[in-house]
Amino acid sequence: MEQKDYLIGHMEDLADKAVKAGCAASRFLTPAEAQRVAEYFKHRRVKLLFDGGFDNAERVRAVFLNSEWGDYDKENLFSALRIEYRPQDTLGHRDVLGALMALGIERDTIGDIVSEDNSATLICLPDMSKFIAENLAKAGRVGVKITEISLDEIPKREEELNVKTDTVASLRLDAVLSAAFGLSRSKTSELISAGRVSLDHLLCQQPAKELTEGALISVRGLGRAKLLEVGGVSRKGRIFVRIGLYGR
Question: Three-state SS string across the chain, please?
Fold first, then answer.
């Protein structure tokens, strides 16, 4: 069975479990996997939520709920560990992730790693927290101290966007992409047909695909943009939009 079929098959098993037991959750999914699952379960009778333990998390768990059984407790789904190190040391996301993988930990048991000055916060499955706390003593050459914290103590991750206002002839993917990156329509069509453009984490080769507010566009080699707001129409019939650009 192909990987993609295994993913959906496993999600269907979790949905069935939730109907009987009230709640069932996957391991951590990548943004692309979460988008695929969301599309597949659009019209299913079971309630589906995505939660990464804190707001704006990239890696999330798919949480299936039987509405008749009530809500779920985040503390049962996530643990948070603070990783501290000396002020004179430098530790990046890759260093922490590499150290975890070296312990034999599977990637989908780990959520986001949020970096701060002289510390990082790691989100993981609850049954992994004790193992990590007892075995992660170094990340690369940097010694670390691990402390379990409450989910309320996870640092907030704000989206850092450079916002621009523009007008587009339509909300087609090629039109919004052109406005976002200042490209000609012919260039955007070339990028889309070459398979370099993803929409909401999934490859999209449909220039005419209509976008809605919140749509995330990724262009390999250029960066990412989000359609933040769709406004009114100008006298010339063009649509006002606000677009956020990441890291530009």
Answer: CCHHHHHHHHHHHHHHHHHHHCEEEEEEECHHHHHHHHHHCCCCCCEEEEECCCCCCCCEEEEEECHHHCCCCHHHCCEEEEEECCCCCCCCHHHHHHHHHHCCCCHHHEEEEEEECCEEEEEECHHHHHHHHHHCCEECCEECEEEEECHHHCCCCCCCEEEEEEEECCCEHHHHHHHHHCCCHHHHHHHHHCCCEEECCEECCCCCCECCCCCEEEECCCEEEEEEEEEEECCCCCEEEEEEEECC
Q: Give pLDDT tens digits for 96-114.
A: 999 999 999 999 999 999 9
Candidate CATH numbers 2.50.20.10, 3.90.1150.10, 3.75.10.10, 3.30.70.330; the one for domain 78-153: 3.30.70.330
Considering the entire predicted model, what is its pTM? 0.74
pLDDT of residue 2: 46
